[in-house]
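quick one: pyridoxal-5'-phosphate bound model?
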Amino acid sequence: MKLPTTGKPHEELLAEMRAQQGDDADWHSGKIWSLVYFAGDDVAEVLKEAYTTFLYTNGLSVAAFKSLRKFESEVIAMTAELLGSSEAVGNMTSGGTESILMAIKTARDMARDQRPGLTEPEMVLPVTAHPAFEKGAHYFGVKPVHIPVRDDFRADVEAAKAAITDNTVLIVGSALCYPYGTIDPIPELAALAQERGIGCHVDACVGGFLLPFLARLGYKLPPWDFSVPGVTSISADLHKYGYAARGSSTVLYRSKEIRRYQFFTYADWPGGLYGSPTMAGSRPGGAIAAAWAVLNYLGEDGYLRLARTVMDTARKLIDGINAIDGLHVIGEPDASIFSFTADAVDIYAVADAMDTRGWQLDRQQMPPKLHLVVTPAHEKIVGTFLADLEWATQSVATDGPTPGGRAAMYGMLGSLPDRGAVEKVIMDFMDRATEPKQEDPMAGLPGRTDGGSVKS
Ligand SMILES: *Cc1c(COP(=O)(O)O)cnc(C)c1O
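yep, here:
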């Protein structure tokens, strides 16, 4: 495979690319349960036009692109207000992972500044925290110290207290945590952080643009945002329940003093004075513009309407799953993401049976479970999904697992004591994922693909 000697015509190319989409996950009709947050064709049109109008712009220089400066600062101001503070400051990033990386770096650098003897910074986080924290710990030389969750799948505060040392720079909680859709006890975690003068990050990547509207709709939720004393930073993804274009998230800090530890500056480059607020250098203006557009297009009433749809749909799915003989939802999710498992049959075999009807369910582990992120796209498929799920559960009980399914492999990979060996399997997958001539990118593989990485 090499660059074609001569270019191809526009129409021919696009036809070829559209044909490729035939093998992609069918997100438009709600067949997948993560990765895509689709709020309708009207929102899609707004995003497309906003994105392409600013296609060539670069958020690296908000001096050159004053439009982007306006959009980003207004997106952050609107987000701050939603997250319980009119004082909070922040930046847009490319996604939840970058937001979390920035929060870890910021907490580490602030602690280093305030405690010059600190050489081995640590971060206390529940086992349910997103892997982006492990990634950040790895990149920034911060030791992750894991704490368990209680029987209700929320962080164990006593364990957090016991895990804090003189080296701790950050305590992490999630609102919502991805595996179970629960909100960690943020006031208690933040109080521990405040007593010691260290950071407390709330990962609201998936909850940040949903929970504020649930509160307005009257749902009873525990406090989790900047209204909680001691919370120093929050990540909230625009490209999840903000319904913005992929590649947009926010990271916010309680004060400007804290955020300055996020920034990078370099004054000695022959190429000029350099300053960059986040990990990225060049930043896609299209993503910034599209985020500003969707916030203004939907407005509070639009987000309230979508939040109601999502919650009503989640309720029907939760009740429907619990009503299927042999299945149950795990714990008590605080919003619209949750997991479920089977009492007597292999839940991964149920997922394989669902595959045969075109559904793509995310397999989770520890314990084996399937996971749903409910979006507006799922409103219309509740009935067929539940009917197929009942069929799948019964068919596994009577006929056993689907021949050629992946249940045995998932079971093995989830329970193998040697996690290093499992990580090697994931490495091999990522190696294969960029080979141009590959028959089945999923061959021999544990998880669904998520931008080239593996979710298991
Ligand atoms: C999605 C998610 C992230 C990571 O976000 P990306 O945009 O995929 O990088 C972090 N935390 C939680 C709770 C999430 O749901």
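The radius of gyration is 22 Å.
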